[in-house]
Amino acid sequence: MLRYFSIRLLRAFITIALVVTFAFVVLRMSGDPALIIMGPEAPPEVIAAFRKAWGLDQPIWLQYVHYFGAIAEGELGRSMRDGRPAIDLVLERVPATLALTIPALLIKVGIGVPSGIYAALHRGSAIDRTVMALAVAGFTVPSFVLGLVLVLIFAVQLGWLPSGGQDSWRHAILPIVTLGVGGAAILARFTRSAMLEVLGQPYIRTASAKGLAWARVVADHALPNAAIPTVTIVGFMVGSLIAGAVVVESVFSWPGVGRLLVVAVANRDLAVVQCILLLVAATMVVSNLIVDFLYGFLDPRLRTGAAAGAH
């Protein structure tokens, strides 16, 4: 058990370090923040002073060492735009993002999982075909396209809902639905596939042959075994609560972390972008760790297999 969890924790730290390194290198190769923030018309001496003030005149490897040293001390840098701590700017936007993503997650699970189970239990029926057709449509349509269609219908044509902003709860309806539809479609497909695979196993036929009621066979044998792949998808969705809202927040002008990331990237506000990416990576890693730990408790074979593979 200890070895199983230790391996997962080590992988988590390595993943975060790789994400931070990748973001650090790519951001510094994508453009000079001094030219973007100060403007190309700024005098050369002003540009040079800006670079020196923010350490951009140092070799990239030295910037990298200083950056990781600051992270180890709990310092995530300051915004080049207003000088405020980057973590403060990001945390201010987190509640707005969670106000969209948590209700959207409830929609994904509340619609996707029951729909997938029902479709699997009625395989080949008209309901099954309808659920799968809707799931394919919801899965393939990009979120920004769906968001624009919803705005066109419910904001422009019908005038029932606002097209953007955060002035009231009504402004959150369209972005929540936009986020929820695609995830519900994914969950419906995966849940149906997992259920069909489990329903085809010999132990399901054996349980039915022993005279157990079908409802009990499904509840006691099919659903618990089909839960593992579904938990994987739900864990990924929990991990992407922040990252998954980038496009939708931009479409609906929602002042969350996703929109802040888009603005910070455009402005080459390095500390803010790095802080957001670090937060996203940490969220994804923590959710995956929780899923791995659940695997270890739900299925001891995975735990013992990981321990054996480490020898």
TrEMBL record:
This is ABC transporter permease. The keyword Nucleus does not apply. InterPro entries: BPD_transp_1_N (IPR045621), MetI-like (IPR000515), MetI-like_sf (IPR035906). GO terms for molecular function: dipeptide transmembrane transporter activity. It is found in: Cell membrane. GO terms for cellular component: plasma membrane. It comes from Methyloraptor flagellatus. Residues 94-295 form the ABC transmembrane type-1 domain. Belongs to the binding-protein-dependent transport system permease family. It is a multi-pass membrane protein. Keywords: Cell membrane, Membrane, Transmembrane, Transmembrane helix, Transport. Pfam families: BPD_transp_1, BPD_transp_1_N.
